Amino acid sequence: MQIIIVAAKSDNQVIGKENDLVWYLPADLRFFRSTIEGAYLATGRKSFESAQGDEVFGPHREFVIITRNKGYQSNIGKIVHSVEAAIAQAAADGAERLCILGGAGIYEQAMNLADTLVLTEVHAEFEGDTFFPAIDGAKWREVSRIRYPKDAENVYDYSFVVYEKIA
Fold it and tell me: Which of 96, 112, 132, 133 has its CA 20 to 30 A from that of 141?
């Protein structure tokens, strides 16, 4: 099973503020949706409960919610208590691709377990309270980068970047 971290981050590593995104890029939303299409999803509880979670998760998707809260319940999705348990659940459910969607603590835990990073890099700096972990060049190799300038629809320059784990 391929394990993919999917995230959007700013040049100063910000991924959010007060459990919300700090930018709006329609191109990133389309890229995100196409990246996770058909994949089994794993997300932290806060990301699941965010405004973006309403758009991503639903009864038609297979996904797990990762939380340390042993009493947490949801009407949709399966509940697990670690990234390793999310991977095991996805494997048990026959997933071919597992996309890990954050937040920051989940990304940090998954960095050594993932095979691929699929990132949108927003070329601006933002104030935030949630950050993407540093990408260690000794462990990750950039394999593709497509850079786009800002336009009428997308108010920031951005890049879609893929990293693969170095074996």
Answer: 96
